[in-house]
Amino acid sequence: MRFFNPRLFNENNADEPLLRMLGLFFAIALSSVGNESALAQEPGEPLRISEFRMAGDETRTRIVFDMDRKVEPKWFLLRSPHRIVIDLPRSDFAIGTEAVEARGLIGKVRYGDMDDDHSRMILTTDGPIMVEDLSVLENENSPGYRLIVDIVAGSEETFEAAMKARIGEAPDEKRPDTPPVRPHEGSNEGNKFTLVIDPGHGGIDGGTRGVNGTSEKQITLAFALELKNKLDETGAYHVVLTRNRDVFLRLDERVRIARQNDADLLISIHADAISVRNFRGATIYTLSERASDAEAAATAARENLSDQLAGMTVEAESDEVADILVDLIRRETHAFSIRFARTLLGELTNAVDVVNNPLRSAGFKVLRAPDVPSILLELGYLSNPKDEALMRDAEWRGRAAENIVRAIEAFVAAKTGAGG
Hints:
Number of helices: 9
CATH superfamily of the largest domain: Zn-dependent exopeptidases
Distance between the termini: 68 Å
Strand content: 25-35%
CATH architecture of the largest domain: 3-Layer(aba) Sandwich
């Protein structure tokens, strides 16, 4: 748009100098507006969060973090353990690890993406608390805004009342009538064998952490991408990732992705941790309501906590009606799962170390699809320095992935030959 055009006026107009000045004024004003627009934040750019800090004691604590723009966070409370959950637009957390160390009433701080549109921060407290204030204020002496959370120690009764009062702010409290369908990764031309690779954890759910700081969610994603590349190179499979970036997925969403893509096999990738530092090696798990051993039961319990640790407020969906047909499908699926687990072990031992009794079973929620053969592979123990170093090594991941591809090839050949 042109605000001033001197051609609209007669060349002999006496007011021409004034009009020229007005034109220059409007041109400068328009240029200024353009510059401000250029400096404005691009649509869809994540909220930038920095300068996280906490101060206080066991009776009163203040949490503050700086943001580059004003937002209206939603928050709610959860118990067992006591938590404050703060939902924000998708955010870039430029926060140092020292800043989130436990202090005052805060025992643990977690943060990360929940989906493409929003992120979440969870403040776990050492007991019941009351939220005196949670507000966003503009900074007085610097650009941007700050979110301030003031909490004080409280009783179970006051916490329970506050939790019920805020439950309407919990976006996970009610499931949609129709769960969102995640798109297929390309078309399955030729009706190829479909593999769903599930990198465990992600987003706010970081999983375990290695002795040298390696995050499980990073290792599982790196390995899943490597395995997908190896499988794609063969041209023989249709491969789907449950996630291809650092984002949170509920356990039932992972199962749903496998079923929606008519998966022939689900491989869930994880990396364990244990208090025994010298314990190391890979483990392969299948589904069983009764765990094969105490360690398998403990591992399943840890993995099944993923939703709760991410501040989810809903229970997992119940299993399908256990009629005779579904029961038969489950039995066949379980048989194929065990067959692949044994085949995988035979190939995997050529590339990686495995634990004693490497074939185990427990009640992993991510393996519960009634019609998809599924296994959970713990690549090793991040609590062991040697295992951690190997999992961080791209060459090791490549060798391990190649052996998994061979196991898949053998499994598919046997399954096809059996008319499966």
